Amino acid sequence: MSLDPFPRGRAAIVGAATFGQGEAPGYDAIDLAAQAALLALDDAGLKLSDVDGLFLCLPNDFLSGLAFAEYLGIRPKVTDNNRTGGSAFLTHAIWAALALDAGLCDTVVIAYGSNQRSNAGKLVSALTSSIHERAYRPLNPITGYALAASRHMHQFGTTKEHLAHVAVAARQWAQRNPEAFMRGDLTLEECLAARRVADPLGVRDCCLVTDGAAAIVMTRADRARHLARPPVYLLGGAEEITHKEIAAMPDLTVTGAARSGARAYAQAGLGPKDVDVVELYDAFTINTILFLEDLGFCAKGEGGPFVASGAIAPGGSLPVNTNGGGLSCCHPGMYGLFTLVEGVRQLRGEGGARQVPGASVALCHGNGGVLSSQVTNILGTAATL
Prior knowledge:
- The protein is about 35% helix and about 20% strand.
- The chain contains 14 helices and 11 strands.
- The protein has helices at about 30-45, 65-70, 90-100, 115-120, 130-135, 140-155, 160-175, 190-195, 220-225, 255-270, 285-295, 305-310, 325-330, 335-345, and strands at about 10-20, 55, 80, 105-115, 195-200, 200, 210-220, 230-240, 275-280, 360-370, 375-380.
- Helix 7 packs across helix 11.
- The protein is globular, with a radius of gyration of 19 Å.
């Protein structure tokens, strides 16, 4: 008997929302997540009483699946609190699709919220160094990403200017997004002159520290067609974990996205040339270059010249991080769920000034740890089924 490894298009995202992006004083993380969840349900035309599947993780509660159910006053049949860092929520979407297809639940909410900016005022990482790395006094997580950037520079001739092009393109998209936290002008010269944090990465190579929440609602395709918003179907989803600490990464220039992307493409029956819009987890500028290469949008080692060509900026051949990404839109500790929200908005034609005309396929990609966990989701409109 042949088994379909992934229920292509049999589950769909029917609601998506954000809340409190930037600064949201007075809210705890769970408050923010709840507000986003309620907005996403309203977007879908559904009620809390419809929810019987709950997937989330919060930055300050390792039993947040239980706490969130209690907070919302619901009794879900299925809950998942899987934590792989910022990639977790794209993993949640995969398992939600499987649970829906198996009939274990009917309506799933995937949510996240963080008050990191209001509460801590700085980037807070759950990463801890082992005895092998501790002697080098790493500044987690940026030290690991700086190491990967240095290796890419050494091996392929990538430059700080190439990295700066990533930050400038993200800011150009953010300027078209009224929800983005940083919308002022940003030049290559300003990026290059910015304070170094962990060489070769400067301040503008690093994600924002913001508050914010996001949520999506998923259900089976047969039900999705009768709800308030146009369904966005999950066509493929795959993950790959290669290590925990950067010292154990097999190759500093190749991430698990090379394998998660290949499997997600195969499930979707699509390839890089079919993708209209790309939403990547850009915690640092090197991420965008690595993921564009590993996901097949340019050859290995050519990511720097590719971004410098203007390809990923507004008006370029490959729209990337159309909301401004973690570099200019928001980054409340973990950014992964925001890639899905923006992918949905693009495929529903709701991008406003940043809308990609005729977008029907979106690739959303999450990253966790120090390039440790990679998860690729491919979304499509009804025309792609």
